[in-house]
Specification:
alpha/beta, Metallo-beta-lactamase, Chain A, binds zinc ion
Length: about 260
């Protein structure tokens, strides 16, 4: 499969997830032949196996949890089972913060034996799966959930994923990928530990990625039509900004040819 990112869900926050106004399955990355699953929320397995997507979790090389909240982790156990063919083939790596592994574990202990390795994510950590290197540069501010965003690096691409967090200025310097994925839960600023549209604009302006993708929408974002908000942001920042849709595929090859 060519290098791509598949959005198997674009829902964020409890109401949109529990009502399934948008799907909440997380993201599938294929980079240099390595397959990684990020934040398998409710419906991840069902979305993979749907007629439309036809993705085989037994081809995954790793699963990453940015934090333990259910909209990022609820399908992790069944995805591990699917990745390892029911636990009969020991393969793949799991990455999660220590809180998701030890304090209030969202990954069941018995499925941990199915995988090759369980790796604890830490602030400033760097990791390798197949041809892909990734780092978790800084701990986010996200309630009491230990949370890390991710920078992916393959021979051809740098991709930054800014997962759930309250805005704080240091965030910007740590995520400089040419492709920038931002979880934008809220339309307006709030006391909740989530980014809002204004925060996303500030980040995009400073980072100036080649492409920015907004996702993980709460109700206020959905009501305001994320695709229109993204078009406005493109105008204001001069950066191509798109709003993720359920099932959206970003073919990275196209961007490689244009840029490098
Ligand atoms: Zn969260």
């Amino acid at each position: 499969m060519s290098d791509r990112i598949i959005f198997l869900g674009t829902a964020g926050a409890r109401f949109v997830v529990t009502s399934q106004i948008r799907a909440s399955g997380g993201m599938w990355f294929t980079l240099e032949g390595t397959n990684l699953y990020l934040d398998p929320g409710p419906g991840a397995l069902v979305k993979c196996r749907s007629k439309r997507e036809k993705l085989d979790p037994a081809k995954l090389d790793g699963i990453i949890l940015s934090h333990r909240h259910l909209d990022h982790s609820s399908d992790v156990n069944i995805m591990i089972e699917a990745m390892t063919k029911g636990g009969f083939e020991r393969r793949g790596k799991i990455f999660a913060p220590v809180q998701a592994l030890e304090d209030d574990p969202v990954i069941l202990r018995y499925v941990r034996d199915y995988v090759e390795e369980v790796v604890t994510l830490r602030e400033g950590g760097s990791y390798q799966v197949g041809e892909v290197e990734f780092t978790t540069p800084i701990r986010h501010i996200h309630g009491n959930a230990e949370t890390y965003g991710v920078n992916f690096r393959s021979p051809s691409f740098t991709i930054s994923y800014i997962t759930d967090t309250k805005f704080f200025p240091e965030l910007i310097g740590h995520y400089r990928g040419k492709f920038l994925i931002i979880n934008v839960v809220r339309l307006k600023p709030s006391d909740l530990d989530h980014l809002c549209l204004e925060d996303a604009e500030r980040i995009i302006n400073e980072v100036q990625p080649r492409l920015a993708v907004l996702t993980h929408f709460g109700m206020t974002m959905i009501r305001a039509k994320p695709w229109e908000l993204a078009a406005d942001l493109s105008q204001r920042t001069g950066v191509e900004v798109i709003a993720a849709r359920d099932g959206m595929i970003i073919e990275l090859e196209k961007w490689k040819e244009e840029g490098d």
